[in-house]
Amino acid sequence: PPGGLRISQTTQRMVQGLFEMHPQAPIAVKGAAEPLATWLVERRLSRRLARRELGVRGVQTPLMGRAAELQALQASWHQLLAGTPPVQVSTLVADAGLGKTRLLNEWLAWSRQQAAQLLWVAASARLASEHQPYDLLQTLVHDLLQLPDAESPAQARQAFVNAVVARLPADERPEAQAHVLGYLLGMDFSGSPHVAGIVQEGAQIRSRAFHTLRQLLASEAAGRPLVLLLEDLHWADAGSLQFLRETVRVWTGGALWLLATARPTLDEHDAAWQAIETQRLALQPLAPVPTELHRLLTERAAGNPYYMQELLQMLFDRGALQVVDAAPDSLAQWRWHPDRFDARQMPATLAGVLQARLDGLPAAERQALARAAVIGPEFDDAALLALDPAAGSQLAALVARQLLVALQQDDAVVVQRHAFGHQLMQEAAYASLLKPERLWAHGQVAAWWHARAESDGQADAWIPAADHHERAEQT
Q1: pTM strictly above 0.70
Q2: Whose C-alpha in 204, 295, 437, 472 is 20 to 30 A from the C-alpha of 324?
Q3: What is the pLDDT of residues 136-151, one digit of tens each?
Q4: DSSP 8-state secondary structure symbol assigned to residue 289
Q5: What average pLDDT score do residues 248-273 get?
Q6: Nearest to 468 by CA among 354, 365, 379, 355
């Protein structure tokens, strides 16, 4: 339609979860033997609604074995709307691959169908977050204020100050509050008269900044129930966790629900977290499916959904499974080719499956994936190109194989960031590099961050630069 955007089924699979899209009738395209299935893109989902799509391509699977946990989350939702108790803290705890994100996505899909006015704020910790002060709060504030991507640190600071001032009462010195909060979050407000006199008073800065952030949360909620979605809390930094614990104790801004996901190592990382929990849902491995048809897969996966997913992806990679596309409004079907796969060659462990998928890649794709793993679970395309100029041409293929996910940025025409589909795949790709190449690659990435810090004036770039210098064993 005029002014609209129609995309193919292939493109839709790459960006699903990031845009609101509706299937259209197949259309004839010159050069194509059959009419092509298409989708109409309606709008970009906000950060608060956008969710990365998980699972195996070509099929939409129902949530399995998590009915009790889903019902528990739904009950907490109703308690949130009723305001009793006024503050809830729920933690989904499970090892990697057991379905925390899938359960959370399923609950989010259900909750969006409910007629309720509330405020969602989402933040997720990263592998390197633990050693970066207030990293989780930076993500939370960015989502809360819906800050645009800025071209320079100065523009980022100004956009941040404008957003804070617009949300706080004029008689409470909102600019001063913005400068103190921004300073805590790593922005360069050291020259501000509101900060200069207290730069040595860490406790005072923290107390004032925490108070301001709670004011912003309450102001933005405007009496509505507030949900903080916090993912991978086991990687969160100590300062952010302290803010969350304090907020639970002193919150008076209406109904509040902290809904977090974490691995069991959270209890070692923050022994005080359990004291504020009102609900903990510990996900156990799924019970094996008791059928002869699925015995091979279920016994190898041992109830681990991610293991099962990677086994299936390996079958797709080797041609033993093929997707038979159906109509746009129906599920695709699978076709099984047992003659194309020897069950005796299936790896016996998840690590073996991941390694087999890596070994089965073309050499150029395997090298690009391994070098991307050096940068981290998420990475700038520019960093990868600086490390390996030929890797850019492999990204689309790696996304199509669901080894990488394209991270669309606000107002960006071209994807400039990617992420591994799962942390375990990133770890496997990283481990595939020999030590000399790993050290060299870390040195190259450190140099890229170093150049970025100097040329763009991004002070926070020194942190990953130092980390990669250390991993490169450079002094």
Answers
A1: no
A2: 295
A3: 999 999 999 988 777 7
A4: P
A5: 94
A6: 379
